[in-house]
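Repro:
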Amino acid sequence: MIDFHSHIIPNIDDGSRSVEETFNLLKEAQEVGFEGIVLTSHYIEGYYETDAPERDIWVKAISDNLKTKGIKTNLYLGNEIYISDNMMNLLIDGKASTINNSSYVLFEMPMNAEPMNLYDVIYSLEENKLIPVLAHPERYSFVQKEPELVYDLIQKGVLMQSNYGSILGQYGEKAKMTVKKFLEANMVHFLGSDVHRQNTIYKKIPQALQEIENIVGEQKLEELTTINPRLALENKRIDIEEPHKIELSFKEKLAMLKGESLRTMLMNLVRKD
C-alpha cells in the first residue's frame, strides 16, 4: 500500500514535531503494511512556506537513515497546497511540489466555505497539463451539505483523496456519512492517512481498511490503496469509474445542518429543495 497523504517531515508544518517522531511514524506505517509514503507537508502562503529544495534535503536525510532504523518504506516528495490564485506560480517557481514530480497536484480548500476561485484554479492547473487532486473532500462542511459539488469537480477532471480516519468517525459523523456516500458512488480515487502524530491513525489503519472493504470490495480497495497511487507516482493515467450522483434525503440534509441556526438551516433547505 501507498499512503498518499501524510505530514511526516519534522518541524515544517503542523505534523511531526521531531526527527524521533518522524521515525516512529515511519515504523508505524511499515507495521500496518505501507510500502510507500507521499510526504505532503502543508504549503500555505504566508504560513507554511518550506520550499521544495529544503524539503528535498529533509527527504534525503530521512531516507539515508531508514536502513539503520530497520525501515524499508519508500518516501516520495509532494505537498498539500492550500488553494490560492498563485498556486500555479508556486509550482512553476519550485516552491510547492506536485506528487513525486508528476502531473498530480494535491490541494486543499477552506473547511467552511467554497472558495470563489475554485474553478479558476482548477482551470489554471489543467491548462498547464496538471491533474488536481482534492484532499479529504468529505471534511469540508459545505461539501457535506452539497456533495454533488464533488460529482461536478470529478466531471471537470479533479480526482479525490479521502482520509482513512473519516470512515472511523475521526472527523465527526458528518464526515463519516459523507465519505461512505463517496465510496459507494465511485467518488474516491486515493486514500491517505493525513497523519500528523504518532500513536494515532496508523494504529487504526487495519480497522479502516476493513470498513472500506465492506463498502467497495477487495478489488476496489486495492485500486484506492495501491494501484492508483502507484500510477500517480509513475505519472501514468488513471482510468476512473463513472461516479454516481448523490441525492441527500431530507433527513440526511437535516443531519448535515445540525448545529447551525434555525435561519441558516431553513435557508439551506429552501435553496436545495
